[in-house]
Amino acid sequence: MPPVRSEGALVKRWRSLLTSYNEVAGHLERALQEQHGLTLSEFEILDRLSEQECEKRRMQDLAADMYLSQSALSRAVARLEKHGLVTRAMCETDRRGVFVHLSPEGLARRTAARETHLHILAKHLQLA
Amino acid sequence: MPPVRSEGALVKRWRSLLTSYNEVAGHLERALQEQHGLTLSEFEILDRLSEQECEKRRMQDLAADMYLSQSALSRAVARLEKHGLVTRAMCETDRRGVFVHLSPEGLARRTAARETHLHILAKHLQLA
DNA sequence: GTACATTTAATGCAGATGCAATCGCTGCCC
DNA sequence: GGGCAGCGATTGCATCTGCATTAAATGTAC
């Protein structure tokens, strides 16, 4: 075992990451839920979809970009679809694949939620 | 760290935090569970308890140190107690309070798990 | 001393997550 | 074409989490 860093520094850094993350994520989760009815994961999905020009992506692509497991992503997308924020469509060339499209409502929701997102980040991330 | 000014930088930094955290936490969670039968939260509790000289702390103190909600902490400590890794005792002077003691088994478990913990941190944290 | 507010921890409940199993589809090899 | 391994996404299940509520103890005002 080659300890490139001292153990103390490693643990200290981990604690710092743990604290920062939970601080920011906690506030984000609450604010997004209260003000926009979105889970943090749901927002992150909408956010990623709105970054793409075509506004549609396969589940796989999304999963690769994100921290969610396949099943969690599947359910999160299902929730978004249920609320009309995205639509799912079979991929014609490979009918196993599923495309996720951002709907106009989804884009609007994401745009609104982005305000909250940035606000919370500005408030809790820079001090971390 | 210097304060972040542009929105883009803020979001970028948040994404980075999100990615780092989930990368490390995911590996930690799996490794601690498989090799020591501990949740990440459970390990963090044991870890904090073993840092104190007296090896006992009120629930409140623990909660203040950690990212867990009060209820999550209560249940995590209950699980640890069920497995004999800590004991709970009423505080005599204020019978609402509860002291959490690290048991010898708990200390042993934490010592063993710390190896895994450091190993995973060394492997996944330094690149983050 | 009695009534009321506050504090501390535990618990009911609903929601999100991950793992493992599953189902449908594709591609390959014969 | 037929059989079979592998891929992509969904679903069953158990667990962990947070919020709101509850129960018990303490503190305060009168």
* Uncertain stretches of chain A: none
Average the pLDDT over all residues of chain A and give the rounded result.
Answer: 90
Largest interface: chains, residues each: A-B, 28 and 28 residues
Structural class by sheet pairing and helices of chain A: mainly alpha
The N- to C-terminal Cα distance of chain A equals: 31 Å
| Helix fraction bin of chain A | 55-70%
Question: Mind explaining what this structure looks like?
Answer:
The structure is a homodimer of 128-residue chains. By secondary structure, the first copy, chain A, is mostly helical. Chain A has five helices and three strands, in the order H-H-E-H-H-E-E-H. Chain A has a three-stranded antiparallel β-sheet with strand order 1-3-2. In chain A, a hairpin with a 7-residue loop joins strand 2 (86-90) and strand 3. The first copy, chain A, is globular. The two termini of chain A are 31 Å apart. Chain A binds chain B through residues 1, 3-5, 7, 10-11, 13-14, 17-26, 44, 67, 117-118, 121-122, 125-126, 128, and chain B through 1, 3-4, 7, 10-11, 13-14, 17-26, 44, 67, 117-119, 121-122, 125-126, 128.
Topology, pairings included?
Two copies of one chain form a homodimer.
Chain A: H1 7-36, H2 40-51, E1 56-58, H3 59-65, H4 70-82, E2 86-90, E3 98-102, H5 104-124
Antiparallel strand pairs in A: 1-3, 2-3
The structure holds a DNA duplex (30 and 30 nucleotides).
Summarize the structure.
With 128 residues, chain A is mainly alpha-helical. Chain A is 65% helix and 10% strand.
Jot down its keywords.
homodimer, globular, mainly alpha, DNA-binding, 128 residues, three-stranded antiparallel β-sheet
